[in-house]
Amino acid sequence: MPQAHYFSNEPIGEFRPKTIEVTLAGKKVSVQTAGGIFSPDHVDTGTAVLLELLDEAPKLGDVLDIGCGWGPIALSIALARPHVTVWAVDVNERALELTRMNAALLGVTNIKICKPEEVPASLKFAGIWSNPPIRVGKEALHEILKTWLPRLLSGAESYLVVQKNLGADSLLRWLQDTLPKKFSCLKVDNSKQFRVIRVTHKN
């Protein structure tokens, strides 16, 4: 599938949902996916690496998933942390519709699914979890991260998973150089193919 498809507001091609079996928050579940979104056939490896750290997700407050796709990160956090409100955002209308469908299928009610501009501007986050859309290009990715990471509450953390050969180390250096000094950025997981970067808004 051409990469541009899942960065589009309205993906090309007919919307044909299909059912796949996955494990989210330790539970085997059936979810709906479709073409025109990221990783429609399974939980991709990077997201799986990130979700191994699910115990680090906050237990209260608002948590953001940037680029939610069909919802694996947002739904996992919502299932594991019933007292948080998860904000699942994406520019792709098909991804948002699938996340809505999957939240309904799984009985998840502590989730808000919307476009980025629909998130209240004053909202601060107890956590930001994302497999960010690296392939949108460096400039666009940097703008996304500069928009959202400063909205972490004091003491809150963001976990980002990035493939090594797509610039994980250079992204870490950029975050360290760009974010204000009140933010710390560290590698916390180093699998064969992926790095997980933790960004902390220090107290």
TrEMBL record:
Residue stretches making up the Methyltransferase small domain: 29-196
Annotated InterPro entries: RsmC/RlmG (IPR046977), SAM-dependent_MTases_sf (IPR029063), Small_mtfrase_dom (IPR007848)
Presence of keyword Nucleotide-binding: no
Gene3D superfamilies for the chain: Vaccinia Virus protein VP39
Record's keyword terms, sorted: Methyltransferase, Transferase
GO MF, one annotated term: S-adenosylmethionine-dependent methyltransferase activity
A biological-process GO annotation: methylation
Protein name: Unannotated protein
Gene source species: freshwater metagenome
